Amino acid sequence: MLRRIFSYSGQYRKYLVLAALCITAESVFELVIPLIMADIVDVGVANADRAYIFCQGGWMILCALAALLLGIGSAKFSAVAGQGLGANLREAEYGKLQQFSFANVDHFQLSSLVTRMTSDVTNIQNSISSGMRPACRGPVMLVAATAVAFSINAELAVVFLVALPALALCLGLIIRNVRPLYAKMQGAIDLVNRIIQENLTAMRVVKAYVRGEYEISKFNEVNMNLQTHSERAFRLAMTNMAAMQFVMYGTIISILWFGGGMIRVGTMKVGELTGFLSYVLQILNSLMMISNIFLMLTRSLASGKRILEVMDEEIDIRDDGAENIRVERGEIEFQHVYFKYREDAEKYVLSDISLHIDAGQTVGIVGQTGSAKTTLVQLIPRLYDITAGHLLIDGRPVENYPLKELRDSIAMVLQKNTLFSGTLRENLLWGDKNASQEEIEEACRIAGADEFIGRLEKGYDTEMGQGGVNVSGGQKQRLCIARAILKKPKVLILDDSTSAVDTATEARIREMLSEKLPRMTKIIIAQRISSVRHADKIIVLDDGRIMGIGTHEELLSGNKIYREIYDSQKEGADL
Hints:
Shape: elongated
CATH class of the largest domain: Mainly Alpha
Structural class: alpha/beta
Largest sheet: 6 strands, mixed
CATH architecture of the largest domain: Up-down Bundle
Number of domains: 2
Radius of gyration: 35 Å
């Protein structure tokens, strides 16, 4: 896993190497200082040689300055490497998300995907930025300081053979128990993000229903859950410090006890014990660094596993076998198509759909709520893949088209209209980034959006705000239709996208579409019969099956479901 994570370091790999070299060199200089200090005590002080003391002191200063400069360099390179790796991970993860189909997104909660791109990546980049120094310095200092300590007094250094296994045992027990807690903690962050996301998205509903207290109680529940998991994880991790201090102080006391005895009997000098204690502290500090790195690594591995789950998600809609073709006319044919969202689902969402739509036709789709109208049209641009049967466009299987070419030739205005932060013009240019002002104005005229754009203070340069909050539902629908028209698609799908406009405006939009775009295949999903009654043919769906196909008059006289829908809407209009 670590190898895969570091494979994303890319152009920042050189900074990882530079940081490691700086840290290693810095450690060497710091290891030399206690040797010089011991020499000053045993030679300079013992012989009252002031010149020798100043000379060796100068070398100590030079070593300290070199270590300082190398430390600054290592901090800089570590920060660049960590932040660079984090940026590359986010970029790769976001790029992977752009390849996801709806089914792939359904495997993860949106809040979890956000956490995996933010909190989990931050854990990893912080581990590099702040962990490179102890990760490189700890082993170097440990090995070198232990070797020097044994060279000073091998008999006294035997104390480490007791301290090291004790500390390793404590660390192993802590890591084994804290690893699953870190994974649970990241999952708890997912839940917090989900509640925040839902609340902010539905803020108007919360206010309208005066459910603020209920939302607060919901948030408090998941927030307390996160607090509980975090406390458990960090409380257990902090026991590492207590174990480390116990071993450290026990080791120092033992060395002072045995070292003092050696000095008393004359087998060890005071300077040797002073230098030995300096290396003992370096060894113990190294052990503390290594133990902290293991804990940091444990948390990073939990985050890395979650990131790699996204990266390893198998894209279920691919165009590996696609030909170099594009949609030319917009003829659509369903041949005994079946569809269900999951392979293990018991029931098909769509069953035995057989339907032919000629290029340039206007087709209406009606049916009760839950009859799978939206699901049917989402199969055309391969937002989902059919489970069985055949779906042809211009006589070719839809799988033969490259996804980019296929989706460029099909424009969908979904039930949930989405506008992005930026100006009105920038939102419209999503349809065609190279569209001229004349093309933009023509698309807005067809969609009926020109009626209100002229009243906006800045016209096409008006800021939309996040999600288009400063325009009404009907205005947002018309802008989305205009954006779709700018694509100049061969197939235009309107999924109940005029529900928020009045019938007169809807009629004008329908007339403009027929007049200005006669060769474009148009599929209109609607709840109102008035929205589709002028279509070339109307499809009646019920529980995922086609229950009738015909014109308004044919269905009115011969289709029970269509007649019931018509009568219910007529009664509502009469009332």
